[in-house]
Structures are given as structure tokens and as C-alpha cells.
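G., before I forget:
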Amino acid sequence: MSSVPAHGADRVRVLSMNGGLEFDRGTSVSQPPSTFDLFVDRGFRALSHVGVMLVLLIIALLLWEIGGKALPGMQRAGLGFITGTTWDVGREQYGILPAIWGTMYSSLLALLIGGVAGITMAVFLTQDFLAPRVAAMFRTIVELLAAIPSVVYGLWGIFVVIPFVRPIAETLHDEFGWIPFFSTSLSGPGLLPASLVLAIMILPTVAAVSQDALRAVPFRIKQAAYGLGATRWEAILRVIVPTASTGIFGALVLGFGRALGETMALAMLVGNSNQITLSMFSPANTLAALLALNFPEAGPREVEILMYGAMVLMAITLIVNVIGSWIMLVANREPRR
Amino acid sequence: MRQLSRYALCVCAVLALASTAGAEEKVRLTGSGASFPFPIYSTWFKAFSAQPNAATVDYQAKGSGAGVQDFLNKTVDFAASDSAMKQEDIDKVAEGVQLLPMTAGEIAIGYNLPGNPTGLKLPRDVYPAIFLGTVTRWNDPKIVAANPGMKLPDLPITVVRRADSSGTTFVFTQHLSAVSPAFKDGPGVGNTVNWPSSDKFVAAPKNDGVTATIKQTPGALGYIEYAYAKLAKVEFASLQNKAGAYVAPGTGGGVDALLSVKLPPNMIAWLPDPDGAKSYPITTYTWMIFRKNNGDPAKAAAMRAMVDYCLSEGQKISDQMGYIPLPQAVVAEVRKAAANIQ
């Protein structure tokens, strides 16, 4: 994005230099920029600036709106809001720790499943395992996943995923119940089915961005690896994937962000129960689902509290993105040391 | 060029004529609120609006609380609510408020057991205990004792509740609190309450979500509007009423419950635990909310016509849609009160 205005600026400089010379308009191919060219160029530059400013303005407005509405709630609920574990509207007790826990748990589990699947899929589709046409078809199918509405995923989760994982979950609980992750029996909605569906939902994002990253690896690097006698897997795992790692990591951060904010499918699948547990078969709650389910009927006082919750969700997303960028920075610096 | 502008002028004139003509023909009423009566309201409004010279009615099912908010903000002509309207909210409306019960519904306790046994009976001390998390297994001696001959599995009871804030939860918790002091002191009454913390309590959004979750979970039990339970063919339990009899949800038990309470002048009657040998215990009215003084005679007349249609023609389809037709005595009273909409 940032390189576009820079190119534009270069071109203007070159053009204006030419503009100082005399040209015979009849014979020469190159011409000084017309007023129209200059107008388009400057206009585009101005437009890009306005675009950037608009993005900042929208974020500022969001913070102003939500923050302003959340302020009374923040004063009332204080920090106990983040550490509290009960949500009781009638008694005005609000605590979102279980929701924060559930949000992180489901998103991380989804990232683990969806991330691995997405990256392997990207490798499979870009590293000449398939005929180009077949690969293109697969790509389209994966991208189609992104077009399915959230509610459909939720219903699919209830009617397909839950019945599918139930016997597996029961066996795991019976045989390995001593492992904290399997310590409760699956009652239906819960963290595991929610995370599985979430993983499929973030798959197109992770796969598409990783594919771009893998495709951006220069062909000569690949050739060089083969030239040095690397096998296909050595070339992929030791050379190509590490070269594309920045982009792949970006894909994971994007996917994680998407998982954190996903609402409707999770509201239908996670069980919306305020529990802090390690068991993936237990129902839990997520921030986005909590907000979406409580907003429609909230009174003015509760809205303030929900806005506070929205601020917390925004803060979590911001922190995740900052940590992501920081890891990327560190990872990029390392080879040069 | 001149010809073109003349042509444009013509088109404008025609459009202007058409729009004023349209405005004279139809009064438009907008309403928002409860989602529980939405299926029947939308059927009523569609049929009512199709009549010649009748107003067009737009109704948005946003939830009872949101409807009352819209009504207070004057963005709608009328609202609908399952939890009536709080006195403090009524006091905020300078024009005066007229609540009218338009239909009534029941809340069923749906369940899903392996082998689909029908006719589960739940005693008065058991179903509040299930929702308090103290009775946790299907083969609990109390359930077995009430259901001789029924094969009850050794399964945990997965309680399914509403995840969103809803009038259904309000009515249901109001009943449980009336029946069980422990429930009243614990979760209490509200559009959302603090349910017991257990991994066997799951929540799903809206009536459809609860219904789907019950249907997909062996050993599940949850509360849903009877209309939805009937539509989705979920098995529902017979509940023991105040008189000690087991009554299944349905029109008969509902009408008996409604008849057991007399409507007060403000038309807000609750039936947290109705008397009567055949009354279904969890029955409730649902209201439409109007302003007494609308400052627009055409609109007020349209609203009265709408209410009249719902009370006469509308009640005939209540039964088949899973709602309870209002008893004749109630209809007469509501009709009288509707005259206050001016």
C-alpha cells in the first residue's frame, strides 16, 4: 500500500523534468505531461492521502464513540469487570474473565487447527503438486469457504460437527479423562466443536495469504535449492517456507484476528456458559458472542457495560496484532545476526 | 435540449402526482418488539394490510426491550412486549400508554431422550431443581417415581437455556421463582439471569437455537415457546400445576390458565402460577403497546382497526399456530380498552 504514493511521486518528478525540455510534438514519441496528466497525478496522490486519513479518522471515531459510551460503565464496574467471573444483569454484577478465557482458548485452538491446515494447503497448492488447472480449481473452492455466511457455519456445526465429534469426545473422555483437556464429557455445544468450525472459517484467510507469500518466493531461490541437490521436501521445508515465513506469519495473525472477532457461529456453538476450564468438551463463552447476544435487549445502563466489553475486545485484538508484528520484526532480524 | 428539459419536467410532475396519490391511499404503521409472537403477528399484519383501504403495518421483531426503547424514542407507532412495560417507563410517556394483551402463549419444557419416549411427567419440585442444577441425572429417583413404566437412561441432564436476553426467560424464571423459593433466592427473575455454573448448562441464541440444540443433544432438556416446540416436533413434558395435576402444553390448558386471572384496568396480568385443575402452569399474555393520544386521527383509527382485526379474525388462527386464543371475556375487555387509542 505504502509503495503506491512513492511511485507516483517518482513519476511526477521525472515527468516534470521532461517538461522543462523542448519537444517537437509532431515527431517525438515522448511528450511533456499535459495539464490533464498532472491533474490526474496530483488528484490521485491527494485521494490516497484522503484514504489514509479516512482510515485513521474512522478508528478515532470508533474509539471516541465506544469509549465515550463505555466510560460510565468503566467507572461503575472498574477493573473488577475484567477479573470477575459472574454475569448477572439483575444484580448488576458484570465479570468477563470467563469470556476472555473462552475467546483466547477457542481462537488459539482454531488457529492451531486452521493454521496447520491452511499452511499445508497453501504449500500443496503452490509447489507444483497439482496440475495448474486443478490447483486453480482447488484455490477457488477454498476461497468459496469465505463466502459462506456465519449463521450457516453455526447451523452446520450444530447438525454435522457436533454429532460427528460426539463419539470421539466420549471415547477420549472415558479413556483419557485424567488429562485436563478431556476432563468433562461433551454435552453438545462446547469449545471443541466451536473451535473446529472456527478453524474452517479462518482457513480461507490463512490459505490465501500464505499462498501469496509462497508464490512471492523468487523462482531462482527454488532453483538454487534444487541445484544444490536438495530433495523436494528439503527445498520446501528448509528453503521456500522459511523464505515466505514473514508472509505466512502475517496470514496467521490475520486468521487469529478473524477468529477473535467471529460472533454468530460461536454464539451458536460455544454453549455461552461462564466457565473457566481447560477441558475442550466443556461449554464456554466468548466476548463477541456475549456482546452480540446481550445488546438487543440491553437497557441504557447495561449498554455502557457492554461497550466496556467491546473496548476490552478491541484492546485484546490490538495487543495480539502488536505482539504479532513484534514477533515478525524479531524473526526478520535474526538471520542477519 | 429544451425538449429534454420539458420532458424531465413532465416526468417530475407525474412522479409527484403518483406519490401524493399513494400517500392519500395508505396509512403506514410501524411497530417493533417481541419476537415470541412474531410468527402470528406477521401473519395477522399481512392479512390485515391486504384488505382494501387498510393501513400497511410493518413489524420488526427486535425483542421486547428494544421495542419498548423504540416506543419511548418515538421511532415506532406501537411496540410489542412479552414482559409488558415497567411503570417507570410508562410514566415517561406524556401521551399516555395503553397496553393491550393480543395473544397468549405457553412455555414448554422440551427434551430429547434416546428412544424418543413421549409424555414425560415432571413434578413441581423436580423441574425447578433441574434448572437449579441439583437434579442432574435422568434416572434421578424423583423423576423415576413420577414416570412409572418409562425407561429413563443413566444420562446426565444437559440443560439448554436462552443465551440472549429474552422475554421467554423472564416468564419462565418468573414461574420457577413462584414455585421454588430456592430459585427465587438463587437465579431470580429476569430477561437474563445468572444460571448455575456447570458444564451441563449450555445456552443457545433464540428459540430456534435452543430447539436445534435440544434436538441434537441426547439427554437435553430446555425451555422454549410452545409454538416453536410444536413446529419443530420436539417432545415436551407435562408439568404438575398448582392443583397437582399433570398438564401438557396446548390450547385447553392455556385457556384455563388465562381464565384463572382477571385483567386489571391497566391490562397487565401475570400468571406466575395459575390456579385451576387443568391450567398449564407456564402461560403468559403478550402485549401490544400504544399511545393514548397519537395526535393523528387517521393513524389512531388505523390502529384501532388493526386491533379489531387481530381480536376478531386473528384469534381464529391462534390455535393452529401454537398460541392460545384469548377467551371471549378477555376479548371484550381488550376491545373496550382499545377505544382509548385516540
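Chain B has 13 helices and twelve strands. The radius of gyration of chain B is 23 Å.

More on Monday.
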